[in-house]
Design goal:
The complex is a heterodimer of chains A (about 190) and B (about 130).
Chain A: H1 4-12, H2 16-37, H3 41-58, H4 68-86, H5 98-104, H6 116-129, H7 132-143, H8 148-155, H9 159-186
Helix pairs in contact in A: 1-2, 2-3, 2-4, 2-7, 3-4, 4-8, 6-9, 7-9, 8-9
Chain B: H1 2-14, H2 22-34, H3 46-88, H4 104-130
Classes of the chains: A mainly alpha (about 190), B mainly alpha (about 130).
C-alpha cells in the first residue's frame, strides 16, 4: 500500500498510473458525496469527473496539512455546492420553527404499517429530502467514517455546528420513523 | 427531551446502545439506514477514461505550446532579418545570376533533375525503406 506522500509525489512528477490509483482509492468517497447532492446520474458522473480533474490540477499545491481524503472531499463538497448554486437549488438550513419539523414528520403515507426494510428505504428517502449540508454531514459521518474535525475541514463549518447539524438531522429522522413504529406497535 | 435524545445518539455512536422504548427503536432504525452506502457507483472504466482525457488535454496543451514557440521563433527570425538588412544596407541584386540567361536549357535541366530526384526519393526509396 503506497502512502499519500509517495502517491502525491509520483502524480506531481507526471505518473498517470499513480493518479489512476488515487482515483480508485477515493472514487467511492467522491461518489457518495456527489450522489447525495445531485439527483441525475449523468450530472453525478460529470461532477465526479470535474472533481478529479480539479484534484489533478491542484495536487502540486497540496501541502499535507490534512489527510489527502479530507482534501479531496473538500474539493468534492465545494464543487457539489457550486453545482447546486448554478442549478439554483436552495441550500437552506433546516429552519428552527416547529412548522418545518411538523411538515417534515407529517404523516402523509397511506400505509398503516411498514416492514423493517421498508422503514429503511423510507429513511433513505427522507435523507434525500434534507438540505444539502445535512445530507453531506450525515454521509461523511456515517458512511465515510469521518470525525467532527474532518467534517469541519471539508465543509468549512465549526465543529460545534457539525455536531448540531448531525443531532438535528438524526432527531428529525427519528421523529418520522417513530410515527411508523408507533403504528406498528398499535397493530 | 433534548438530553434524552443526545444520550441515545451518543450511545449509538459509541456502539454501547442498550436503550429501550420507541425513541430508542426509532434511533436504531435511523442509524441502521444511515450506515447504508448510497446506491450510486461510478462506472468501472471511470479512472481509465479520466486519465485518457487528461492525457489528450495535455497533448493539446503541448501542441499549442509548440506552436507558440514556433510562432515566436519565426517572428524573431523576421525581426533579426529586418535588423540585419537595415544595418548592412543590403540591396537585393540578381546580377550574380545573369549568366543563366544564356543557358535556358541548363536551367530547365537543373529544375527537372531536382524534381526527378525528389520523385524517386518519395516513390521508390522511402517505400523500399518502409518494408
Amino acid at each position: 500500500m503506497i502512502d499519500d506522500r509517495a502517491l502525491v509525489s509520483r502524480i506531481v512528477s507526471g505518473d498517470k498510473q499513480a493518479f489512476m490509483l488515487l482515483i480508485k482509492q477515493h472514487e467511492r468517497l467522491v461518489a457518495h458525496m456527489v450522489s447525495r447532492l445531485v439527483d441525475r446520474n449523468e450530472d453525478r458522473e460529470e461532477l465526479c469527473q470535474d472533481v478529479f480533474l480539479k484534484v489533478y490540477e491542484k495536487i502540486a499545491e497540496f501541502n499535507f496539512q490534512s489527510k489527502l481524503s479530507t482534501w479531496i472531499a473538500t474539493i468534492a463538497y465545494r464543487m457539489g455546492i457550486n453545482h447546486l448554486r448554478k442549478k439554483k437549488i436552495a441550500l437552506s438550513d433546516i429552519p428552527e420553527e416547529d412548522s418545518f419539523t411538523a411538515h417534515f414528520i407529517s404523516d402523509n403515507d397511506p400505509q398503516e404499517s411498514m416492514e423493517d426494510n421498508e422503514i429503511e428505504v423510507m429513511t433513505l428517502r427522507l435523507i434525500d429530502q434534507l438540505p444539502p449540508h445535512y445530507k453531506t454531514i450525515l454521509t461523511l459521518y456515517h458512511v465515510d467514517q469521518m470525525n467532527y474535525c474532518e467534517i469541519g475541514e471539508v465543509t468549512g463549518m465549526p465543529e460545534g455546528t457539525v455536531k448540531n447539524y448531525l443531532f438535528r438531522a438524526r432527531n428529525l429522522l427519528k421523529e418520522k420513523v417513530k410515527k411508523y413504529l408507533g403504528k406498528e406497535q398499535l397493530l | 427531551m433534548k438530553n434524552e435524545d443526545e444520550n441515545l445518539q451518543n450511545q449509538l455512536d459509541r456502539g454501547d446502545f442498550s436503550g429501550e422504548g420507541i425513541d430508542a427503536q426509532a434511533y436504531q432504525k435511523v442509524f441502521d439506514a444511515l450506515k447504508q452506502e448510497p446506491e450510486y457507483i461510478l462506472p468501472v472504466y471511470f479512472a481509465d477514461r479520466l486519465v485518457t482525457l487528461i492525457e489528450s488535454k495535455e497533448k493539446v496543451k503541448e501542441i499549442s505550446r509548440d506552436n507558440l514557440w514556433l510562432g515566436l521563433g519565426l517572428f524573431s527570425f523576421v525581426i533579426a532579418l529586418i535588423v540585419a538588412l537595415v544595418l548592412t544596407d543590403f540591396k537585393l541584386s540578381f546580377g550574380a545570376f545573369q549568366f543563366f540567361a544564356g543557358y535556358p536549357g541548363l536551367v530547365f535541366f537543373g529544375i527537372a533533375f531536382i524534381a526527378l530526384l525528389n520523385w524517386v526519393d518519395k516513390k521508390i526509396i522511402r517505400k523500399v525503406e518502409a518494408f
